[in-house]
Amino acid sequence: MSFPPAFYRWRPHPWHGLEVGPDAPEIVHAYIEITPFDLVKYEVDKATGYLLVDRPHRSSSQPPALYGFVPRTYCGDRVRSLSPDSTKGDGDPLDICVISERPISKSEVILNSRVVGGIQMIDHGEADDKIIAVLANDNVWGSCRDLKDVPEVMVERLRHYFHTYKMIPGEDENRVSVDVVYDADHAKKVVRASMEDYIDMYGG
Question: How many whole angstroms separate alpha carbon 26 and alpha carbon 41?
Fold first, then answer.
């Protein structure tokens, strides 16, 4: 049996089998793992491509935006070079948070998202950047082009979430840094670097 060119006989792996986006690094695909309604940390299992329960959140913290990754990206040496205080990339696809007006409660969806900025997160010395984006055709947020177009309180919420979501009650040490927030131009450099790191790691 023959299949049309756009038809997948088997489900493609969301990290390796999907395209990076229609106009990267400005407009990229975001594969969503977690919604603002989730109290459990999900992430894609690298072997199978299905969602894996990583851990339930111990605190009341919930992600303030859709959270996932950009397909066919990898945080390696090029991403690390844009994060001077890190020692290496975290070896994962590039994380992305997507802001939308209408609540999106389903995960494992693909969004066209416009890159507007990012958070230079460093986790135990590893570069673990969080790209901030808006739903590309959103009726409210779709006109945003840079982080200055996003209310400061939204960025504060994202920083607070990533600063606290791995904290364990009773442990004082938090080895996560979210001190640096950057604009769209730098975010696009990070996206481009992660695309090149992916090619180095896995080929074109």
Answer: 27
How far is the C-alpha of 177 from the C-alpha of 42, rounded, in Å?
21
* 37 closest CA partner among 69, 57, 63: 63
Question: How confident is the model over 153-187, as pLDDT tens digits?
Answer: 999 999 999 988 776 666 656 688 898 999 999 99
Distance CA 102, CA 198 (A): 32
Domains of the chain by residue range? 27-202
Superfamily of domain 27-202: Inorganic pyrophosphatase (3.90.80.10)
Half-sphere exposure of 173 (CA within 13 A, CB side): 3
Q: Is the pTM of this model over 0.90?
A: yes
Between CA 77 and CA 81 the distance in angstroms is: 6
Instruction: Categorise residue 134: left if φ over 0, alpha if ψ from -120 to 50, beta otherwise.
Output: beta
